[in-house]
Amino acid sequence: MRDLVLLAFVAAVVAMGFRRPFFWVLLYIYVDIVTPQKIGFGIITSISLSLLCFVAAFAGYVLLDSKQGSRFTLRQGLIVALLGWCAITTFFLADFPVEAATKWDWVWKSLFFAAFLPLTLRTKLRLESAALVMVLAAGTIIISAGIKTVLSGGGYGVLTSLVDDNSGLYEGSTLSTVAIAMVPLTLWVAKHGSIFTERKLAMTFAVALVFASLLIPIGTQTRTGLICIAVLGVLVLRSVKYRFVYAGLAGLALLVAIPFLPASYTERMSTITEYQADESASTRVAVWRWTIDYVQANPLGGGFDAFLGNSFTYNTRQTVELGNTETVVYQEVTDEGRAYHSAYFEVLGEQGFPGFLIWLSLHGLGLWQMERIRRRYKDSKDTGEVRWRSLATALQQGHVVYLVGAVFVGVGYQPFMFMLLGLQIALYTLMKRDWQGTQVQPKPWLANQSPEGQPPEGQPPKGQPA
Amino acid sequence: MIDYFSIALTHGLILLALWRLMPRDELDVEGAPAEKASRPWLKDESGEEGSPDA
After folding, report:
1. ipTM over the 0.90 cut-off
2. B6 vs A162: CB contact, 8 Å cut-off?
3. B17 and A20 in contact by Cβ < 8 A?
4. Most buried residue among A18, A50, A110, A418 by CB atoms closer than 10 A?
């Protein structure tokens, strides 16, 4: 039954795509996030759905779509450079070539699609529709997980959304980070969307979805999610009008929520400050130290999954009750092949300094570009400009939440977040096009500034640098 | 049951969104006349009196 519904859905979108080939790009976004081939039971599991949609999206753009307005920008160049560097570390420098090749299989798609997506998002409506599909697709997993949390309370590694799987968005910590990072985008789509214009209904849905998103860190009992919520709370302070009212309401909501939290959750969260007694937290610190040593010996990186070569011994400190006395016990633990548990160390260890620098500049530039749009439209009253400023804010907030969550979760190449970068690139390109349409940038170093006259509004001259 | 609800809700909304996007020419050409309202089931929705996208 589930298979039939999912296949019928995919078939319907494919059919509609013959009129609007761009829909195949949206279909790939959906397939990559929800992975329907995993949540089905029968025939759908045996089709390479992801690859088919990928080919359809790419071929649809190359063969059927207009390229007017498509721009290849600096950040897309950075993604391609990162992709190229990953290929080099995978095929020439990998410590574990077999495992590296396995990870390469999905990473290259994630990076390639992130570089390709902005080319297809060449109109504002396309950008909006991609944001909407991302929210709804991730919503499929989040709504299910949210309701299950309310009904069962969830548990670390226990809560299963649509499928009992520990990869992609179905992994607890990753889902927590992505769910919280997506909150601002969800609200933007409901508040400023032109596809669903029934504002009240859309906002009701968005508020419910945001509530479900906030439940994910509770359901999956991941500490990272809690940190992400805190970061988002602080970030929102920056953009709300009535800061004190907001802070008061947020505090009140927190006070009301605490009694409803499951006991196992509050117990686990209280260990955030007791990292010395916690094996999971202790290993992280040990792996990070190992990575720093490793990358000094191998500055070009060790390819995907280079962490498999690590082995270290460390002590955990625990307080044990013996009768009426409490004793501190140090336990020696030896670990091998522990994962990075941090996107920063993941990229540093796997791609070395060159890959890490590209990765960092990709993210840094994104934050700066969104800030530029925000500043430009800071005092604008124009509804269109306010709308795009809000989108820049939403994408920036989601990005910061991800960058903070990424300190504790290995999500360095997470496809959803790379799609979010794709949206940022597209938004910045579209905004620059608008800016160039309204004013001509002075270029005194050019003798003949515009030999062929002014470009028509909304159409920059060909070969415009990004 | 919960999974079915979640799948039905979001997939239904995605289909509805695509259905509403289908007649909008601004999807493919920036500045194309916008639809007055995205209600393709109504006959008089040819979008002749649209305004350019903000």
Report:
1. no
2. yes
3. no
4. A418
